[in-house]
Amino acid sequence: MVSMKKTSFTISIILIFCILILAAVWSYFRNTLDALDPSGTSASEVYERHYVLIPDVEDSVLWQKIYESAAQEAAASNAYVEYLSQDTGSSYTMADYLRILIAAKADGIILKPDGTEEVRDLINEAVDNGIPVVTVLEDDSESQRISYVGLNSYQLADTYTEYALSLLGGKSGTIMILLDAESVNPIQSLAASQLTRYIEEQKADGQEINVSLYYLENTTDFDYDEGIRNLIVSYSPLPDLLISMDELLTECAYQALIDYNEVGNTSLIGFYYSDQILEAIEKGIIPVTLVVDTSEVGRYSIEALEEFHELGHASSYYSVTLSLITQGNVADYLTATEEEAAN
């Protein structure tokens, strides 16, 4: 009898323990899903569809503007866009967020793929589960994503080539293209390859131009800074021209040139803009930066998702406009940013 009581007591303890574990897991899962909607209101209760945008950089002007455009376009279709802010202190990866969104049955996902096989498989899993995925700025054509919204490598290479040759002014020189070593980026990699070829084809007779690639690690918050500083310290003389195909890389390169008093010794062609980059252009430190039309990126992303839900398919590629910011038009951008800040 005593043995049976002990057995019953043991079973009860095990059951209680299992219940506590399940409760903890459920609480964690609910808190994770609630993080997708900081307002505390379920988007599905108010809107017909709930889309989620996953940025790859925290506090990025580029991603904020893409989100604003996407949210405005979605609202017109009675849809809701969630900006899944990736806190730099969070241990979640893009793959983790994709798993959460698949479990939460989101109506659509917008992201910049990191090129890993894990993320590619999860994009495929999402689509297999009826969740359309749109890739923006960078593509993963090997995945089942329904659409890619962004630039193509020919646009990038042609524009970078034009301004690189213009800055060299017919003189021989050296060009270094800055790339992220951690991100497998077919668009940028192909653009860098094509840029090298275009430079060779379009350079003046007798002009000697050496183009090289410089890969920077980006596994921590300070890798870009350290990589750029190592470049400046290691190369003597510095390349005549640095070309950045990334917003954060542009800021890091600009700051390093100032810190090491190399402004004037090398020129920098940047990508996109921030307050810091705009000020650098206004002062003539950065001659030009390329700007992708973020309003088109956001709008086309929602158009692709809406088209998929209505028709079961969407256009596989949406090309967006590429513009330039120089000293000639930087005042317009500075005014616009000041007005946005005031509002």
Write a brief caption for the model.
With 343 residues, the chain is of the alpha/beta class.
Describe the protein's architecture and organization.
It is a single chain. By secondary structure, this protein is of the alpha/beta class. The chain is 50% helix and 17% strand. The protein is built from twelve helices and twelve strands. The strands form two sheets. A six-stranded parallel β-sheet has the order 2-1-3-4-5-11, sandwiched between helices. It has a six-stranded mixed β-sheet with strand order 7-6-8-9-10-12, with helices on both faces. The longest helix has 33 residues. The radius of gyration is 24 Å and the shape is globular. The termini are far apart.
Q: What does the average pLDDT come to? A: 85
- How can the largest sheet be summarized? 6 strands, parallel
Spell the H/E element sequence: HHEHEHEHEEHEHEHEHEHEHEEH
Order of strands in the sheet with most strands: 2-1-3-4-5-11
* Helix content, binned percent: 40-55%
Shape: globular
Cα-to-Cα separation, first versus last residue: 77 Å
Number of strands: 12
Radius of gyration: 24 Å
